[in-house]
Specification:
alpha/beta; Rossmann fold; binds adenosine-5'-triphosphate; binds xanthosine-5'-monophosphate; binds glutamine; binds magnesium ion
Length: 527
């Protein structure tokens, strides 16, 4: 097989490189480009151009929170201009172009955040082809104090005389506003003009092409006889990853599902049925409930619980992995992981990974111990792209649109000590809640929903008898990226029904509450 056939996506597809200066919108630039089938990747703004692993067809400098003129502000490697490819600077990126050119950047008299209307003053500019005077989105304090030498103005607004600039000789452009946000009404046209008309990027980034390339890459990487293992939870990411492995190497892929005793009702059975019978994926279910629950005995601290669950996963996985003996007599060399692009972006940000709010359980912890090499077929994809990929691979809608379920499962939804009795209460209440959500046709309107069990007792009255039992908190949220979320507004009648069913059908619950806190300040999970 030729090298070309096993190359990663940025060598197979024309790629726009986004250099990230830390804007909260940077990843949206990639999203927008991919929406019209142009492939893009992001690297930190500190990337040395001489060390780039590929040759981009164009470069976008993103926005960012710094001021180009302040001490310690990040600056692009000047070698970016030697690539001789078109460059587009957005907000900070444009200010960076001006700064390099002659430093004409200063603090504006007034901060400009929100909508503005652009006025296109030079309609011969290819970047603005087909773009009318229309709303754009601004988010800046600083502005160009003069037009950089060698540039012309192509668009302005009432507050920004240099809302769009273009180099007279070279294909280098700057925008003060953010074309990547949907509030910039023609933003996508601008990005498409840049990528397709100016950089001449081929629009061949389609999921079908991606699948073919990835399957070839996996086959070449693994070779004709070696076998691969993967931790599979029944969630979207690991199922899609597993299905791709199945397509690539058939029964030489072994999926392992660990029943940690903290799963939802009937989960193990359902996952086995969908993966094994439905998708033909060779799945081993490992019952490790006792092991997990005995290690959690007496533990109430949320971080300790997460660590114990994460570590126990590793031990179980290691043990099971060692029992698999590949037919060719070799040892298992590769591990499938469902890492997504947002995880990659987080870890490559030049600002470093964000502060730990909670230690998300992560199979990444397996690496050092297991010395396995990773296969991460989804590491270039966003969640909705993974869902699309899943659909193309024939994974049923029901699974593709499943709400995410955290690795530590009910372990972080039983507040305080996790005992089999407490898990049972939380599990039963959760089952009723989700059952009603489905019955009312609401499942796909909600991003995630679950029941948490609060370790407080409350007085109630049932059939003239005093009760003194615990409290269930229901949570349902709407979100696109799980970084921020809002609580879902149910009809009162729906909540009445769920509450009445839970108190009547689940022993040990005296009261049901509904969580009306957004994220932030709360998080999605209670622990
Ligand atoms: N019970 C489990 N058995 C085996 N592996 C698991 C289990 N729970 C989690 N994992 C592993 O941890 C990874 C991360 O879990 P995470 O919940 O983020 O992803 P997912 O379950 O694949 O998808 P989703 O986000 O839709 O739930 C999974 O991809 C899987 O590899
Ligand atoms: O695999 C996981 N392991 C974890 O430890 C974990 N903690 C939270 N979550 C999920 O992440 C999303 C955001 O949750 P939080 O607002 O609670 O951080 C929500 O979708 C949560 O369900 C986890 N997923
Ligand atoms: N969104 C941005 O890129 C802002 C750039 C710079 N920090 C400013 O305030 O103007
Ligand atoms: Mg999951």
């Amino acid at each position: 097989m030729s090298l070309e056939e096993v190359a990663p996506a940025h060598q197979t597809f024309d790629t726009i490189l986004v250099l990230d200066f830390g804007s909260q919108y940077s990843h949206l630039i990639i999203r927008r480009l991919r929406e019209f089938n142009v492939y893009a990747e992001m690297l930190p703004c500190t990337q040395k151009i001489g060390e780039l692993p590929f040759k981009p067809v164009g470069v976008i400098l993103s926005g960012g929170p710094y001021s180009v003129f302040e001490d310690g502000a990040p600056h692009v490697d000047p070698a970016v201009f030697d690539l001789n490819v078109p460059i587009l600077g957005i907000c900070y990126g444009m200010q960076e172009l001006a700064w390099i050119n002659g430093k004409g950047v200063g603090r504006g008299e007034k901060r400009e955040y929100g909508p503005a209307v652009i006025n296109v003053v030079d309609d011969s500019c290819p970047l603005f082809k087909g773009v009318d005077n229309s709303q754009v989105w601004m988010s800046h304090n600083d502005k160009l104090t003069a037009l950089p030498t060698g540039y012309k103005t192509v668009a302005d607004t009432s507050n920004s005389p240099y809302a769009g600039i273009a180099n007279i000789e070279k294909p280098i452009f700057g925008l003060q506003f953010h074309p990547e946000v949907t509030h910039s009404l023609h933003g996508k046209v601008l990005l498409k003009n840049f990528a397709v008309e100016i950089c001449h990027a081929k629009q061949n980034w389609t999921m079908k092409n991606f699948i073919d390339t990835e399957i070839t890459r996996i086959r070449t990487l693994v070779g004709p006889t070696a076998e691969v293992i993967g931790a599979v939870s029944g969630g979207v990411d690991s199922t899609v990853g597993a299905k791709l492995m199945k397509e690539a190497i058939g029964d030489r892929f072994h999926a392992i599902f660990v029943d940690n005793g903290l799963m939802r009702k009937n989960e193990a059975v359902t996952v086995k049925k969908t993966l094994d019978d439905g998708l033909g994926i060779n799945l081993t279910v490992v019952d490790a409930a006792e092991e997990f629950l005995s290690k959690l005995k007496g533990i109430t601290d949320p971080e300790k619980k997460r660590k114990i669950i994460g570590n126990t996963f590793i031990h179980v996985f290691e043990r099971v992995g060692a029992e698999i003996k590949p037919k060719d007599g070799s040892e298992i060399e590769y591990l499938l992981q469902g890492t997504l692009y947002p995880d990659v972006i987080e870890s490559i940000s030049f600002k470093g990974p964000s502060q730990t709010i909670k230690t998300h359980h992560n199979v990444g912890g397996l690496l050092e111990d297991m010395k396995l090499k990773l296969i991460e077929p989804l590491r270039e994809l966003f969640k909705d792209e993974v869902r699309n990929l899943g659909k193309i691979l024939g994974i049923p809608d029901e699974l593709v649109w499943r709400h995410p379920f955290p690795g530590p499962g009910i372990g972080i939804r039983v507040l305080g000590e996790v005992t089999p009795a407490q898990v049972k209460i939380a599990r039963e209440a959760d089952y009723i809640f989700i059952e009603e959500i489905r019955a009312h046709g609401l499942y796909n309107n909600i991003s995630q929903a679950f029941a948490a069990l609060l370790p407080v007792k409350s007085v109630g009255v049932v059939g003239d008898q005093r009760t003194y039992e615990q409290v269930i908190a229901l949570r349902a949220i709407e979100t696109t990226d799980f970084m921020t979320a809002d609580w879902y507004v149910f009809e009162a009648a729906f909540l009445k029904k769920v509450s009445s069913r839970i108190v009547n059908e689940v022993d040990g619950v005296a009261r049901v509450t509904y969580d009306i806190t957004s994220k932030p300040p709360a998080t999605v999970e209670w622990e």
